[in-house]
C-alpha cells in the first residue's frame, strides 16, 4: 500500500517511477517464489488501475523497470534494530521493484499554461509616478537614502511648499516623524523587511526651511537615535495647528527602486478635520476617509446628544437635590419650632417618645394671661381679637430665645414658657423673671386695632417636673408635675400688669437685681395659704442693660 500511496500522490506528473519493496522468505524451490512474486505484483497492479479509474477517472499504464534483490538491512533501514534482527533470524529476503506509471496529464498542463497566459495578459503599461501621487495626494516617494524624491500636492501644501523641488532631496525625518512601528530605525532595510506592516507618520508643519539637514544626517553611531525622535514630540497641540497623522503602507517599486508611502490622514470627525486645517476635498476620493469622517461626525453627534441628555439629567438631579435640601431645612425649621431641637433629633432617629421623657429636679415655669380681649359677636370683631392675640404672642415668641426660655404652648389667652428644660440651666428663675419683665414693658408699646386695651398678668413658680413627648400624633413637649399647677395658680391669683412669684422662685433670684415686694399670705386653690411676692425691676445697671439689649 505504500507504493499505491506514492503513485496517487505523484499522479499529476506525466512520468512516475515507483519503487516497491517486497519481502520474501528463502525458499529452496525458486519456481514457487516466482509464482508468489508474480501473484503479488498482479494484485498491486489491479489496485493501482482501480484507484486511477474510480478516483481520478483516467487510465494507467504500468511497466516494471527494474527488479533486484537487496539485503534486509538496506531496505529496512527505517525499521528499528529489533525488527531488523528478527527478520534476519527468520531468513527473510527483500526484493526492490521499480515501476513506471504512464497516464494522460494534458488537462493539468493546459490549465497551468492558461493561468500563466492570463497573468501575462493582465500586465498593465507603465504609468508616471505623478499619476500615483494624484491618487494619493498625501503620498511621498523615498529613495534608498531615505530622502524625499517627490510628494503629493496636499502634503506639499501642509508643509508650506509650493512645488516638490523645495523638499526634493531632504531627509524624510525633516518633515515626517515615525510613530509606528515604534522603536525601530527609519532605514531602507527596515522598510524592505516591514513591507506588509502599516506605518504611521506624523507631519511636521512648515519645517522644510527651518530644520537644517546637517543636524538630521546621522552617522553610523547615530542611526539608532533617529527612532527616539518621536518620543520627544506630542501630536496634541493648540486648536487650528494640530499635527496630521498619516497612516498607510510602504510600497516598494522594483522598476525604479523607490518606496512610495501610500497613505491617508487619520481623521475621526469634522471637528478634528477643522483642527488640522484640512477640508473634505483634501481626502482621497477612492478611499473611505470621507465616509469615516462623516460616520464619525454622525457618531459624535449621537454622543453629543447623549451627553447633553446626561448633562440635563445631572442638572435636574442637582436641582432636585437643592430642592430636597431646601424643603428639608424648612421641615427641620418647622419641627424645631414645634419641639426642642434635642427632642426632635431623638424622634428623627426613630427613638421612642418615652425616651424623650426626663425628670428635672428644679426648673422655673411661667404662665402669662392676656386680658382685655372680650368675646365679639361679629366676624370682624373675632378677626380683630385673633389679630391682637397674634401680635402679642408673636412679640413674646421673639423674646424667648434672648433669655434661654422655651415656649411650651398657648391655650386660649394663656402663654406658657419654661426655663431649665429641656436644656438645663442654673439661671432658670432669673431667665423667666427677666422675660416676664420684658413682656410687661413691650405690651405697653404695642398698637392694637379698634383701640383695644390689653393687659397681662404673670405667675411664676420653681420646682421639680417631668418633661417629654407623649402620644403618637401632634407631638408636643409637655411638662408634668405639681410645679405646673402651682405656677398656673400664681398666674390666676395675680393682678393685671404685675408679676406674681412664689417664695421658692424668690429664693432663687439675686436680691440686688430685683425689687421684691411681699404680698403676704395668699389662699391658693389646692395649696392653702402661701407666701408670695411681687417682683419688679431695679434701675438697670450696665450688666442688666447688656443682658436686655437685642
Question: What would a concise description of this structure say?
Answer:
The chain has helices spanning about 1-10, 30-55, 70-75, 80-90, 105-120, 130-135, 155-160, 190-195, 270-275, 290-340, 340-350, 380-400, 430-440, 480-490, 505-510, 540-550, and strands spanning about 15-25, 60-70, 90-100, 140, 150, 175-180, 200-205, 245-255, 260-265, 360-370, 405-410, 415-420, 455-470, 475-480, 500, 515-525, 530-535. With about 550 residues, the chain is of the alpha+beta class.
What would you say this structure looks like, in words?
By secondary structure, the protein is an alpha+beta fold. The chain is 38% helix and 25% strand. The protein has 16 helices and 17 strands. The strands form three sheets. Strands 10, 11, 12, 13, 14, 15, 16 and 17 form an eight-stranded mixed β-sheet that branches. A six-stranded antiparallel β-sheet has the order 5-4-9-8-7-6, with helices on one face. Strands 1-3-2 form a three-stranded antiparallel β-sheet. β16 (514-524) and β17 (528-537) form a beta hairpin. α12 packs across α13. The protein is elongated, with a radius of gyration of 57 Å.
Can you give keywords for this protein?
550 residues, alpha+beta, 8-stranded mixed beta sheet, 6-stranded antiparallel beta sheet, disordered N terminus
Strand content: 15-25%
The average pLDDT value, as a whole number, equals 77
Q: Name the overall outline.
A: elongated
Instruction: Round the Cα radius of gyration to an integer and report it.
Output: 57 Å
Oligomer type: single chain
Major sheet: size, sense and barrel closure?
8 strands, mixed
Q: What's the count of strands?
A: 17
The helix count comes to 16
The CA-CA distance between the termini, in Å, is 121 Å
Structural class: alpha+beta
User: Helical amount among residues, as a percent range?
Assistant: 25-40%
Low-confidence stretches: 1-18, 24-29, 74-78, 207-240
Amino acid at each position: 500500500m505504500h507504493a499505491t500511496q506514492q503513485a496517487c500522490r505523484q499522479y499529476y506528473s506525466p512520468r512516475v517511477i515507483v519503487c516497491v519493496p517486497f519481502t520474501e522468505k528463502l525458499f529452496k524451490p525458486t519456481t514457487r517464489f516466482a509464482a508468489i512474486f508474480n501473484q503479488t505484483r498482479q494484485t498491486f497492479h489491479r489496485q493501482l488501475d482501480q484507484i486511477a479509474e474510480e478516483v481520478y477517472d483516467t487510465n494507467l499504464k504500468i511497466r516494471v523497470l527494474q527488479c533486484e534483490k537487496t539485503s534486509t538491512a538496506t531496505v529496512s533501514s527505517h525499521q528499528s534494530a529489533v525488527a531488523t534482527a528478527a527478520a534476519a533470524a527468520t531468513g527473510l529476503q527483500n526484493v526492490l521493484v521499480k515501476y513506471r506509471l504512464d497516464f494522460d496529464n494534458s488537462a493539468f498542463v493546459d490549465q497551468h499554461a492558461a493561468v500563466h497566459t492570463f497573468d501575462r495578459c493582465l500586465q498593465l503599461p507603465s504609468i508616471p509616478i505623478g499619476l500615483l501621487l494624484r491618487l494619493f495626494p498625501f503620498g511621498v516617494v523615498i529613495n534608498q537614502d531615505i530622502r524625499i524624491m517627490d510628494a503629493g500636492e496636499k502634503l506639499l501644501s501642509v508643509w508650506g511648499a509650493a512645488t516638490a523641488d523645495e523638499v526634493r532631496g531632504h531627509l524624510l525625518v525633516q518633515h515626517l516623524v515615525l510613530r509606528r512601528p515604534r522603536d525601530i530605525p527609519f532605514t531602507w532595510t527596515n522598510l524592505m523587511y516591514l513591507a506588509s506592516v502599516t506605518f504611521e507618520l506624523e507631519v511636521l508643519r512648515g519645517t522644510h526651511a527651518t530644520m537644517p539637514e546637517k543636524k538630521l544626517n546621522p552617522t553610523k553611531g547615530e542611526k539608532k537615535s533617529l527612532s527616539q525622535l518621536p518620543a520627544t514630540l506630542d501630536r496634541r497641540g493648540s486648536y487650528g495647528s494640530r499635527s496630521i497623522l498619516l497612516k498607510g503602507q510602504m510600497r516598494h517599486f522594483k522598476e525604479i527602486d523607490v518606496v512610495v508611502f501610500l497613505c491617508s490622514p487619520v481623521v475621526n470627525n469634522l471637528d478634528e478635520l477643522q483642527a488640522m486645517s484640512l477640508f473634505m476635498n483634501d481626502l482621497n476620493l477612492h478611499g473611505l476617509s470621507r465616509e469615516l469622517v462623516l460616520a464619525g461626525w454622525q457618531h459624535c453627534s449621537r454622543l453629543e446628544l447623549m451627553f447633553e441628555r446626561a448633562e440635563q439629567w445631572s442638572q435636574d438631579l442637582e436641582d432636585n437635590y437643592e430642592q430636597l435640601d431646601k424643603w428639608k431645612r424648612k421641615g427641620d425649621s418647622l419641627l424645631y419650632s414645634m419641639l426642642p431641637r434635642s427632642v426632635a433629633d431623638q424622634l428623627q432617629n426613630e427613638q421612642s417618645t418615652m425616651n424623650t421623657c426626663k425628670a428635672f429636679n428644679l426648673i422655673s415655669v411661667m404662665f402669662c394671661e392676656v386680658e382685655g380681649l372680650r368675646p365679639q359677636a361679629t366676624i370682624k370683631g373675632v378677626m380683630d381679637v385673633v389679630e391682637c392675640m397674634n401680635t402679642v404672642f408673636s412679640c413674646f415668641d421673639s423674646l424667648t430665645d434672648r433669655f434661654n426660655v422655651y415656649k411650651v404652648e398657648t391655650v386660649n389667652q394663656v402663654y406658657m414658657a419654661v426655663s431649665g428644660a429641656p436644656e438645663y440651666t442654673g439661671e432658670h428663675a432669673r431667665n423667666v423673671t427677666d422675660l416676664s419683665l420684658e413682656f410687661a414693658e413691650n405690651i405697653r408699646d404695642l398698637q392694637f386695632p379698634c383701640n383695644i386695651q390689653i393687659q397681662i398678668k404673670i405667675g411664676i413658680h420653681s420646682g421639680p417636673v417631668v418633661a417629654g413627648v407623649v402620644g403618637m400624633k401632634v407631638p408636643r413637649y409637655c411638662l408634668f408635675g405639681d410645679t405646673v399647677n402651682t405656677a398656673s395658680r400664681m398666674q390666676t391669683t395675680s393682678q393685671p400688669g404685675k408679676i406674681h412669684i412664689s417664695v421658692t422662685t424668690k429664693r432663687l433670684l439675686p436680691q440686688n437685681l430685683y425689687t421684691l415686694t411681699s404680698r403676704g399670705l395668699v389662699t391658693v386653690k389646692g395649696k392653702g395659704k402661701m407666701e408670695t411676692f411681687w417682683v419688679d425691676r431695679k434701675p438697670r445697671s450696665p450688666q442688666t442693660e447688656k443682658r436686655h439689649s437685642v
